[in-house]
Amino acid sequence: MSIQASGAAFGAPPERRFQVGFWLAGGIATVAVVAAVALGIVRFVDTLSQPGDYVRVTAATPGFLQVDHPGERVVYTEGAQLPLYQLKVHVAAPDGAAVPVYGYGGGDVTYDTSGHSGRAVGKFTAAAKGPYRVEMTNPDGQIAVGLDLFDDLIGLFVGPLIVLGAGLLLAAAVLVGTILARRRSGPQDGGIGIT
To answer: pTM for the complete prediction?
Structure first.
């Protein structure tokens, strides 16, 4: 009879490689949270400052809205905040053709930032690039024209959530991979054998 002892029987296998996996998963999750919060803050600040860049129009001062990316534009009423039918807004495309302006109909979208306060009352489609002439004939009104603030508010949440979700999924994948690798390694071969 002989007794054989393996050195592996006197201690657990090294855990450092698995600890690295756990730390990596935690690090990825932390970076995802920080990145999502940072992106949310940047988007929030950008959304708050956007009304300051709108083209403003009164009866005495028509404006030109430069469109580089065709799509829908929104008419906001400022000052007295009159309804669209009282403002009598007219929009002309770069080729001079009249562009119909419709009621906003997208809920109550308002802002009070950058020294301006307004409410969405109308919208029109800027189908081509170029300068759009915007006029209104009501001397008591003032309008601002720009992108839909509601779309920006949606983007305020969508981007950070995508970053957070992707980061957490990656962290979960690393964590699960580490746990499975640890289980596969199991107890080391060896121990005390008696033959």
So the answer is: 0.62
